[in-house]
Amino acid sequence: MIKAILIFNNHGKPRLSKFYEHYSEDTEQQIIRETFHLVSKRDENVCNFLEGGMLIGGSENELIYRHYATLYFVFCVDSSESELGILDLIQVFVETLDKCFENVCELDLIFHVDKVHNILAEMVMGGMVLETNMNEIITQVDAQNKMEKSEAGIAGAPARAVSAVKNMNLPEMPRNINIGDISIKVPNLPSFK
Amino acid sequence: MALKIVKGSIDRMFDKNLQDLVRGIRNHKEDEAKYISTCIDEIKQELKQDNIAVKANAVCKLTYLQMLGYDVSWAAFNIVEVMSSSKFTYKRIGYLAASQCFHESTDVIMLTTNQIRKDLSSPNQYDTGVALTGLSCFVTPDLARDLANDIMTLMSHTKPYIRKKAVLIMYKVFLKYPESLRPAFPRLKEKLEDPDPGVQSAAVNVICELARRNPKNYLSLAPLFFKLMTSSTNNWVLIKIIKLFGALTPLEPRLGKKLIEPLTNLIHSTSAMSLLYECVNTVIAVLISLSSGMPNHSASIQLCVQKLRILIEDSDQNLKYLGLLAMSKILKTHPKSVQSHKDLILQCLDDKDESIRLRALDLLYGMVSKKNLMEIVKKLMLHVDKAEGTTYRDELLTKIIDICSQSNYQYITNFEWYISILVELTRLEGTRHGHLIASQMLDVAIRVKAIRAFAVAQMATLLDNAHLLTGNTQRNGICEVLYAAAWICGEFSEHLEDPLSTLEAMLRPKVATLPGHIQAVYVQNAAKLFATVLRGQEGAPADRTVAQETSQLLIDRLPLFVQSANLEVQERASCILQLVKYIQKLQQKDVEVAEEVTALFAGELNPVAPKAQKKVPVPEGLDLDAWINEPPSESESEDEGRKPKGKAVFAKEESKHTKPRYTEVDEKELAKRREVRKAEQANNPFYIKASPSSQKVYQDGVGVEHIPVVQIDLSVPLKVPDQYVKLEEERRQKDKADKKKKDKKKRREKGEKGRRRKGDSGPESEEDITPAHMVDITTEEMPENALPSDDDEKDPNDPHKALDIDLDKPLADSEKKLPVRTHRPDEVLRSPVDDGEGVEVVPELKKKSGKEKKDKKKDKDRKKSKEEKKKKKHKHEEGENLMGAGSEVPVQSEDSNEVAAPPPATTTNEASDLDFWLSNAPVPSNPQEAAKVSEAPSASTPEAVSGMAVVPPDSEPEEAKDTEPEDTKSSKHKKKKQKKEKEEKEKKKKKKHHHHHHHSDGAGDESVQNGNVEEEEPLPPMSNYALLAENSYIKMMCDIQGNLQDGSQVVVSVIFENKCDSFIKAMEFNVLDSLNSKLQRPEGAGPHDGLTVPFQLPPGISNEARFVFSVQSIVMPQKLKGTLTFIVKTDDSSTHEKLDFKLHFTCTSYLITTPCYSDAYAKLLESGDLKGSSLKLEGVSQPFHHLLARICFHHHFSVVERIGSCASMYSRSIQGHHVCLLVKTADQTVSIDAKCDEPGLLGNVLDEIKLTFSQC
């Protein structure tokens, strides 16, 4: 079982947190901090496994992580998962993100955490690995995005016109007033091949 | 209104969306908290709006804030609202938010049941998918119970995407609702062979997760998994299966034997490191489970160790780490194989990666020998000096101590060296392990008598340098060492060279800064030292004055301790102070006191091992479980008489624990006890049916020949897995105990001589190295015949404990279906318990074993005859059943013998199947069997195989005969019961069904509550499922619902129920399309082709399928003619059958329950677009809220507002027609005024409402 999936940056700012067991918001933040503390002090070129922090079950659980440019991807798993398998899974996850966001960078994760969640949901469900085939994951994600787009379009099914008007479903307006949010330097993730 | 819309849309444009929120937070780095709190206020405003898009946007932002640590549980209700949006976009946002912040104590979660059910059955696969994903995160016991059936249906969905999610979520459902495991398991097992690899992988995943916690229940799946392992190419699946086998092998050594070969092949062939690693791991587990020292396995061990060496030598740190990890597992059983790689492991100690160094340290434990211990420790000491982090340094410290102290200091040849290492370690600052060093010092000084002089000298130095230790204040854990130092110096003060100076050192003022418990030891031992000093000084008469000076020293210094805040210190100090004062008085009178003072501390303190008391063995002849006074009703002679005569060695252990007592208790008493127990079980929601083996029913007074003893004998060899493991364990334990005893003796003998001769006790071959001193722990500290330590118990709170359910037992009738949702949960819970009272259904077994037949073709013939026998037996039973029905006075066995009762034929059958599969590669797990193997010339001939199978074939008929009479009698009784129960159950089922559907459209219910209607009385049960058609084979119930997603679609859910005893398959559902309504067929199918129902029906099973119809006009009700064709398959023949039906699309079925706010409702009525109509119903006697509930439920309305006996209701058709009702009641007359923008539709709906009320 996967107990939690965390993504945070080099400063420990959470970019995605998914807990498959319930913790209070405070505990969740502490776990993120603790995990960041454990992971960030490790050199590059050391192994990617370590014992979980005290809050998330201690030695029963293992942290398996990968570090890409500015981001740490950490999976907290119990003994039923294969360590190398999870490492591969992280790789698949990141590659999928890269495909879905077209050259993913930290900013994509910052502004579209919901999309990241949706992609993750096609890979891991309730703490168990659902799909490891990248093409299958992308197919499903794309199909759902398509549905979302067709729902957003006012030209959708005329039969829904009434409800559409009632629900006031206007298309997403591009409102990038200050897209120049570039003061933060965010290098792209390295290519994986 | 239009203006409002425009205004709203402009508002929306200025709403912050998620991106704006994130940007805002980034732009307000300084006052982030303040900014977020204003954002939350905005979100609260947005949530108050009616517009679902605005709400969804707000919920989306909340999900983000939740990640940042803000509690958003206050918005739970809004999240539910967004979840129930008909749009996928919003639904997904809602479910995501719910999965992030809902948990078991979220109270609104109970509102979601019906919404989730609706989404699960949505024709859009992504609605279903999103609901499943969300549910997997927040499923509660209630949700699990209510939705288990729906999810189980989805496991056979046509789309693999849904199937795999449904399969995966079942694990969560099992965890929360263990009762669902048995009914769902057969289907889960089917999914292991699903054509879609994703579904297969999910099923493997779930079963592995289940089996990991309760492996023994899944042993029977081993052949299936074995097949998968040899056929699958999906590494992910392979890894899971191989891990699972790792958990199973300890239970069944023969399985391991069978696995070795394919695993070795995989190790040789695979290129995937992850797979290789897991294979190696499982091979290790197999080797551990097989008793060590099997000569033919040394090759496998060598292979593993070799591969691991490759991993460890790899430049990839991850592989290195895992290699070391796996190595440490081998170390436990095959230390020799690992020791040959010592160089590599020592090399890893220098690795720059701390995790790797730690793993290498673990391995060091097994690397040491008498020869290299000092060298290794020296190396570790170097590391201690270099280590930067305190955690790693502390780890090193504990490892050094572990390594040195393992098995009673077995490898230490020179204790002076060890003491100096310990003293060296005290130089470490800031370590947490001061007490560890201290206890080692004490341990060595006490146990190794010869070292005491040296130890005391070292400790005296430590005390003298105490300022070094205390210099770093109290938080320095290392000062604990002084505790040991002071005690050793005091207790063994006769070895001190200069006791006076040590005494002086112990009474320095600085000591008062030490922790209290250390000071107390200081004070006490100062007194001991004082005694020693006095004795030395009084020997020489010239030193009288010196002696008095010593007393004066104490009198001067002790008051410091008398003032201590620590009570212990204070008490001891004042006692000793008074004592010394008295001594001083005597000294002044020239009285010799040394002798008497020394007498205060005379005698040696011997250590006692912590578990010594526990390990005192029970003396022979003493039975702690025996009654001291005979209980009145029990007759001892009966007990004696029933004692198993020929009890085999295997059963000994069991009987010892369970103490079966068959007592002659009168029936009344028994009945009473049974009642009590039943009540207890009924009240315990987690009571899981005991396996049938524990449900033996004995008939009393019929004859002595049916004593259960006979069965115990037979069942022992049949029930292999446990028995062998137990036997093996027993044997090992005995061996260990024996060896220990011997060792102890040896050690004692040698110890006496060795003190002089400095002999060696180590069992290793390194006799040439002679240790300086001996450690004699066990002889002195432990009682004679100490037993090996007891094993730890399982955590009672483990949720997986509830899933420890026997899955091989055939399903009882009532179990085939999951209990459907009801109002009263305990009713549902009770039903499985009721069946637990011992219904063994033999026919099911046939089916089940038939499925497994694939794997054991060779076994077929044997089994067939068995089955026939069983059939006959069954008939026989039934015959008897009718005849002997009048005279049954069954006596149920008591709890005590339930445990000991042997498993009945049904389970043994399963077990023997597994045995047979396993016996192809028999494992001689004990010497006797090994001999047997060598006797059998070739294991492949059938005779030899069956000989090896633990069931001797010729003993079988006998067994059958033996068990038969009993079985017949017991099942006679059971049969009757079963029948009755069946009837009851059917009644119950019907009721449940009603309940189920009454709730299934609870949206109506809810809205009744929205309209402030309290449920004064429970509502009568209602169902939307109407009988569609029925014949002697099959029954079809159907429910027709509009599809909100698509205005031209109607979904027909049909429940097919198999009513006959045969298998129904190849069902085809076909409808004659009309101009207006068409069955949606898959692309490429002709307009007259039928749809294949995606499942088959075993006898008694029902399942639900959904069919989508497209409709054009919804104004008129419709009737469609259709036919269901199917094949009824009996054992010997199969017939084609068909069933005609008429589908009735009422106008009601085009309506969809849609909540409406009262202001919007008022606007709608004011708009004047709607045309009116009305209806009067006479003689309606039911309460008003029932009436409303009925309209809500049957006709998909929701209550907008209710004032007294008047209510307004609303519904919407799938094509967007508004239907408004005003319902009034007075004196049994109900008048309904209705308005709708489509008069035709309205008229038909009203007619249907009228019909509903005329029927009730």
UniProtKB/TrEMBL annotation, chain A:
Family matches, as Gene3D superfamilies: 3.30.450.60
Q: What is its main location?
A: membrane
Classification via Pfam families: Clat_adaptor_s
Q: Which residues form a coiled coil?
A: none
Q: How does the entry describe its membrane topology?
A: Peripheral membrane protein
GO BP:
Golgi to vacuole transport; intracellular protein transport
Source domain of life: Eukaryota
Ordered alphabetically, the record's keywords are: Cytoplasmic vesicle, Golgi apparatus, Membrane, Protein transport, Transport
Q: Name the InterPro entries for this protein.
A: AP_complex_ssu, AP_mu_sigma_su, APS3, Clathrin_sm-chain_CS, Longin-like_dom_sf
User: A GO CC term?
Assistant: AP-3 adaptor complex
CDD domains assigned: AP3_sigma
Compartment list: Cytoplasmic vesicle membrane; Golgi apparatus
Domain named AP complex mu/sigma subunit is located at 1-147
| Task of the protein | Part of the AP-3 complex, an adaptor-related complex which is not clathrin-associated. The complex is associated with the Golgi region as well as more peripheral structures. It facilitates the budding of vesicles from the Golgi membrane and may be directly involved in trafficking to lysosomes. In concert with the BLOC-1 complex, AP-3 is required to target cargos into vesicles assembled at cell bodies for delivery into neurites and nerve terminals.
Q: Which family does it belong to?
A: Belongs to the adaptor complexes small subunit family.
Tell me what this protein is called: AP-3 complex subunit sigma-1
Source organism per UniProt: Esox lucius
